[in-house]
Design brief:
The chain is mainly alpha-helical. It is 71% helix and 0% strand. The chain is built from twelve helices and no strands.
């Protein structure tokens, strides 16, 4: 396994796309808006659909690119490619460029796993769409989709290191949603399209 490959994947994964898009759209520091997250969902609420789509595309693209770069630097080895996928997601969640305060790894994980195990990712996409359509909870759909990928890798007979990397990525994504899980349990998680409660109402809840 190449240390250079893993380091390169981390640095590419750590590029704070949502932060840069927020700046470009005049929001300033996106971490001071909404949930404080730099991902596409918070960018959507703060800057609108165009900015969110740009953030989503950028995060997916950098995840894919990070793994492709890591794989190329390591000569295409499966172990190094799997390690690069994990490193890309770690970079997104704990980016050195933003003092290790980053996103939740969903879109970057999607891009990374599309490069690592594309056929295992495909079943997760309809799961995300179905959960989002029925509940309008992006967080719940993201976690359930992430959990599907390692299962898909196992069922498809991917190498154990690939299934293990997918499981680590899923675990990171779910762990980064711990606050969302708490809000889901409390019934206070915001749905897509739902406006924030007025201050007086929020104070009563």
């Amino acid at each position: 396994m190449s240390v250079l490959a893993v380091a390169a994947a981390y640095l590419v994964g750590a590029v704070p796309v949502g932060f840069l898009v927020g700046r470009a759209f005049g929001i300033g520091d996106i971490r001071r808006s909404g949930s404080g997250n730099i991902g596409a969902t918070n960018v959507l609420r703060a800057a609108g659909t165009g900015a969110a789509l740009l953030t989503l595309a950028g995060d997916v693209g950098k995840g894919y690119a990070a793994v492709a770069l890591g794989s190329a630097l390591a000569g295409g080895g499966t172990r190094a490619t799997a390690a690069a996928a994990v490193a890309a997601v770690v970079g997104n969640c704990w980016p050195v460029y933003l003092a290790f305060r980053g996103g939740k790894g969903v879109a970057t994980g999607l891009g990374a796993l599309l490069r690592l195990a594309p056929w295992a990712v495909l079943p997760a996409l309809p799961v995300f769409v179905a959960v989002l359509a029925t509940t309008r909870y992006v967080s719940l759909g993201s976690m359930m989709a992430a959990a599907c990928v390692p299962l898909g890798a196992l069922l498809l007979g991917e190498p154990p290191v690939v299934s293990a990397a997918a499981a680590v990525v899923a675990a990171v994504v779910i762990a980064r949603h711990r606050e969302n899980v708490a809000r889901l349990r409390a019934g206070t998680e915001r749905r897509v399209g739902e406006r924030p409660a007025p201050p007086a109402e929020a104070a009563r809840t």
